[in-house]
Amino acid sequence: MRFKITAGSLVAVVLLGLACFGVVRLQLRAGAEADIEAEGPRVRELVRTIRRAAALDLVRIATTRAATSGLVEVFSGVQDSRRNRAYDEADRFAQELASPANGGRRADLVAILDDTGRVLARDLDRNALVDADFRERSPAVAAALAGTAGYDIVRQQTLLLELAVAPIRSREGGVLGALVVGFDLGNGTAKDTAERTGGGVSYLFGTRQHSTSLEGSAATDLRTYFEQGAGKTALQRVIASGDPAVLGEVSLGGRAYHVTVGALPVDSGQRTAAFAALVDRDAKLARVGAANMVLLFTALAAIAVLIYGIVLGGVLLRPIEQMEEGILQVINGRTDLRLDIKSAELGGLAYRVNQLLNMMTGVSEEAEDEGGSGGEPGG
């Protein structure tokens, strides 16, 4: 009987605990999946907003600088000295951008173009890129030479440049040339964007990964996914149409990520670059593990039931077993035996049994009391 009571209680506790675990786990997983589905587009739109804000800020900086007298003076005086003046102005501006007051990051390219779109000079090296035709590299250059500042993303050797191009105007208002300012969308930019969005970020040119906030094998797997895997075709469609796409779950470096992609915004409309927004599914689903607490509490409850069953056996069932054994001895001929049960719960019952035995054997209660045997009611 002791085993039945304990086992029944254990089964009830375990079954109830497992049922609660299943319900809680399903609810937590459904909530996590919904969060992941919503998080992908949110991170993607944040990346687009950040890059567009950066583009507007870069165009503003370039436009403000292009209107300074120093850049206008580049195109005055002796023709042969233009390159030196252009180099001095470009390098000076690059150093100003690198000052702590301007964020402390040096531009990866500052160049001054003539009215044909060819480079007069760039920062760092007065002989680099001289006479290179930037019209061929970015439609934003042609727009700037026509009088409208613009923004583009171009590939420059090993760099993927966010490029602002602003017209340099004469005092009469004519366009003398253009100022080009570019920053690389490198790993540092990707990591900074990731910190601001709360998700992973990768910048791509065509289907080639240029930079990413991921590290190690995860970064390698993402590059392979876009350059050789299932993501390549989807990325090509995104760049061609400009419409974002949800690529779903992708395994990167042994972890599951939810991947969405979008085209990087450019003024020219000629999209060549894109980005991937990544949500760490494993991190989001980790909260499902909170359901394991139900299992822990179930185990603790089962232990408590087991202990309670043992205690109950000692307090309640052992006196019953003693009564059963005593009554059996009376049945077998020991009519002088009386029950001596010290139990708050069963002492009264033992006393009444003793009274019944006295009546059946003709022993008076006074004689029984003198004999000193028998339980007392309630004791």
Describe the structure.
- The chain has 379 residues and is of the alpha+beta class.
- It folds into 3 domains: 32-55 and 189-286, 2-Layer Sandwich (Beta-Lactamase); 57-184, Beta-Lactamase (2-Layer Sandwich); 335-379, no CATH class.
- 51% of the residues lie in helices and 19% in strands.
- The chain has 11 helices and 10 strands.
- It has helices at 2-66, 69-74, 82-97, 139-145, 187-197, 216-227, 231-241, 281-285, 292-331, 347-361, 365-371, and strands at 109-113, 119-122, 150-156, 159-169, 175-184, 200-205, 208-212, 245-252, 255-263, 273-280.
- A 5-stranded antiparallel beta sheet has the order 2-1-5-4-3. A 5-stranded antiparallel beta sheet has the order 7-6-10-9-8, sandwiched between helices.
- It is rod-shaped, with a radius of gyration of 42 Å.
- The model has no long low-confidence stretch (mean pLDDT 86).
Quick tags:
Beta-Lactamase; 11 helices; 3 domains; 379 residues; five-stranded antiparallel beta sheet; alpha+beta; 19% strand; 51% helix
